[in-house]
Design a protein that fits this description.
Helix content is 47%, strand content 16%. It is α/β, with parallel strands linked by helices.
């Protein structure tokens, strides 16, 4: 199954999963004498609830699901759908109370019924989940605490919402409907069990060990892992994996990093890492021999998924990491296709991997353009930022099919993407991937 067909298949399956519970509950017998607005509000509630439940499937990192899109697209969709689910779930009681103001008393958590209390609890948990995700940086909630809070609030919202539907009981008036509803809830929660319990058990069987932590230019370094009693991980150049360190994979602390090594060398994995926070700062001092666990590979940001006669790679800062994997892989494969690398960073002295890139240029049909934001006095190359004018000076003019890969800070990627589109590069030939998980 090619990526396009697989992508369509998963979209259709998603729509079925979201809408099926609503239609199943509408099969007769149904509660008699309901007005249009009551039925409409209940339909919105069902759709919002199933959208919320399907989020557990999206975050479980099933490779077959993420492969057609890239996990960054899945995570961005996860955020948007969570917002939509909250809107639909809020619309459910709002429409009921506008239609029948006497129901406003149910908003009192000390009054009402257990059905209304569980519904209010579900809404509160979901609203808090969205708020802590959107405003995580403003409230200074660190990544690990956010992940734990996010998981617990999601679990609480789903359980309370299912309790609300079961206690309200209007559309669960037959044994088979009750069974279907329980099966749906169990399927959603099983993804959380798989992600937090089963997958770590599988990771424990394929343990890695830190071989070295090698300092690079600037606040960058390379983490090198070697497999313990297994052959290692096969990945496509440009992909990434979630990393855990320590004696056990049963930890909430894991972070995504791109492979910087060749995909042809599965027995020795390298990750290019920049010091950006507490975890990456401490990672520099991890001693050799420390146990490590990987969940991956993930991502659709790979030259193996975009065959072409040539490539243009545009990197900003540590965004060079997956592109370095491209070049090392091409060198190991003795790939002679032409590649242009435009690599920008703040300073010449802090430009990571520049010596390694020069060595690769001797093995590849590779042209490198360095762009330094704050160049030294004797600098004669490009300076400032990667702009439309700079691209006009350096982009290849040969009329062959090329694919363009852009990786770096979000502002840089957006600017470069816009500049490439202005120059007539087809939208489908521009590839980028973001690690903005929240």
């Amino acid at each position: 199954m090619n990526r396009f067909i697989a992508g369509i298949f998963w979209i259709l399956l998603y729509l079925v999963a979201v809408l099926a519970p609503m239609f199943i509950m509408m099969i007769r017998p149904t509660p008699p004498g309901r007005s249009f607005w009551v039925e409409f509000s209940i339909a919105l509630g069902f759709v919002g609830l199933t959208q919320m439940g399907v989020q557990f499937l999206l975050i479980a990192r099933y490779r077959k699901v993420t492969a057609p899109y890239g996990i960054d697209v899945i995570l961005q969709y996860h955020r948007l759908i969570a917002m939509m689910a909250l809107f639909l779930i809020l619309a459910h009681p709002a429409i009921l109370m506008i239609h029948n103001p006497a129901l406003l008393g149910l908003l009192n958590p000390l009054g009402g019924t257990w059905a209304s209390r569980s519904g209010l609890g579900a809404i509160a948990a979901l609203a808090l989940l969205v708020a802590t995700s959107v405003f995580r940086q403003q409230i200074k909630l660190d990544y690990e605490r956010w992940r734990l809070t996010h998981t617990l609030l999601g679990f609480a919202a789903l359980v309370l919402a299912h309790a609300h539907v079961s206690l309200a009981g209007s559309y669960l008036n037959t044994v088979w409907k009750q069974a279907m509803w329980k099966v749906f809830g169990a399927a959603m929660l099983s993804s959380l069990v798989y992600l937090r319990l089963i997958r770590p058990a599988l990771q424990k069987r394929e343990r890695y060990r830190v071989a070295e932590v090698r300092p690079e230019r600037g606040e960058n370094y390379t983490l090198v892992l070697e497999p313990v009693s297994h052959r290692g991980l096969r990945f496509a150049p440009g992909q990434f994996a979630w990393l855990k360190l320590g004696q056990t994979p049963y930890t909430i602390e894991e972070h995504p990093f791109s492979f910087s090594s060749s995909s042809e060398a599965a027995g020795r994995l390298e990750f290019g890492i920049k010091v950006l926070g507490d975890f990456t700062r401490e990672l520099r001092h991890v001693p050799a021999g420390t146990d490590a666990y990987l969940d991956g590979p993930y991502g659709a940001f790979s030259l193996d998924l975009a065959p072409a006669a040539g490539y243009v790679l545009i990197a900003g800062g540590i965004g060079i990491t997956p592109l370095l994997s491209f070049l090392k892989t091409m060198a190991d494969r003795q790939d002679v296709r032409p590649v242009l690398l435009i690599y920008g960073d703040r300073s010449w002295d802090g430009m990571a991997y520049r010596e390694e890139l020069d060595e690769l240029a001797g093995r590849l049909n590779l042209t490198i353009v360095h762009v330094v934001e704050k160049p030294p006095q004797d600098w004669r190359g490009e300076s400032g930022f990667v702009t439309a004018d700079l691209l006009a000076r350096h982009l290849p003019r040969e009329k062959i099919k090329r694919e363009y890969f852009v990786c770096g800070p979000p502002v840089m990627m957006e600017a470069v993407r816009a500049a490439l589109l202005e120059r007539g590069v087809p939208r489908e030939s521009i590839h980028s991937e973001r690690f903005n998980l929240v």
